[in-house]
Amino acid sequence: MPSRHHARPVKRGGHVVSAAAKAKKAPAPTPRHGLARVLSKAGVCSRSEAARRVLAGRVAVDGQVVLDPEFPVVLERQHVTLDGEPVTAMRRVYVALNKPRGLVTTVQDEQGRATVYRCFDGAGLPWLAPVGRLDKASEGLLLFSNDPEWAARLTEPATGPLKTYRVQVDGLPDAAQLARMRDGIEEGGEHLAAHSVEVLRHGERTAWLEIVLDEGRNRHIRRLLQVLGLEVLRLVRVAIGPVALGALAKGQWRLLEAAELEMLAAHSLG
Questions:
Q1: Is 198 helix (H, G, I), strand (E, B) or coil?
Q2: How many angstroms separate the first and last alpha carbons of the chain?
Q3: Domain end (from 86, 115, 147)
Q4: Using one digit for the tens of pLDDT, what is the confidence trace for 175-195?
């Protein structure tokens, strides 16, 4: 019958410490992530752009050029360079922009259209990614950051803050149409609904609505209203959770205040 071996306890300072206890005290290994993800999390550029830079041979790890975007790296323990310059975690920046109509929310547009990044020309800001989207014809509050994890929490439907819009429509919606906006409709295989809606004011032919969304699908409001026979004349996002557009001029931007970041964090957690 084979003998059984038991780990002997270790006596240390008058106390007996078992092998199992020693194993529990061992520090957990630092997780490794793919090189492109590491560059993105550091705030250097987007993950897709990071992958392109790695494939172009512009990134080295511990002095060796790496061509694999998924190459495992621990930034705190390894020397990573981009174009010969050391990569360190960038200072996190959080920006609010009043997006004008006519600009597309992308870094580079394949059709050569003007993008929202025109508003940051000469500002000296680090790389920033939009947190969510506004289509070309829409305007108002748009957030940017080089903090991917923060952005992911804000855009997650289950945890993200409510978004408030002022919408001018061609027509005078009746009570039935308002109820359908709240109940939702099916369009393109998706359920589109407003968290809340109310009429702010109206004239003889047009009305201004305040619509609040708890998630934002592609052209959510425009598609919802189109099904109900209402054409959108103007669409302005005026708030994201506790962050309000306020008096920020069109095309202008500002840094988010510490109190706004704290309130957004509370909304995302709650």
A1: strand
A2: 60
A3: 86
A4: 999 999 999 999 989 999 999
CATH number for 186: 3.30.70.1560
pLDDT at 20: 52
Q: What confidence score (pLDDT) does residue 16 get?
A: 53
Same-domain pairing of 130 and 254? yes
CB-based contact 180:228 (threshold 8 Å): yes
* Cα–Cα distance, 91 to 88 (Å, whole number): 9
Determine, yes or no, domain membership for 13: no
Q: What is the CATH number of the domain that holds 50?
A: 3.10.290.10
For residue 101, give the DSSP letter: T
Identify the segments of the chain with pLDDT beneath 70: 1-31, 268-270
The reply to whether 135 belongs to the active site is yes
User: Structure pTM?
Assistant: 0.77
Domain count, the chain: 3
Task: List, in sequence order, every residue forming a beta bridge with 141; answer none if it has no partner.
Answer: 98
Of 68, 83, 135, 183, the catalytic one is 135
**In degrees rounded to 5, what are phi and psi of residue 240?**
-125, 105
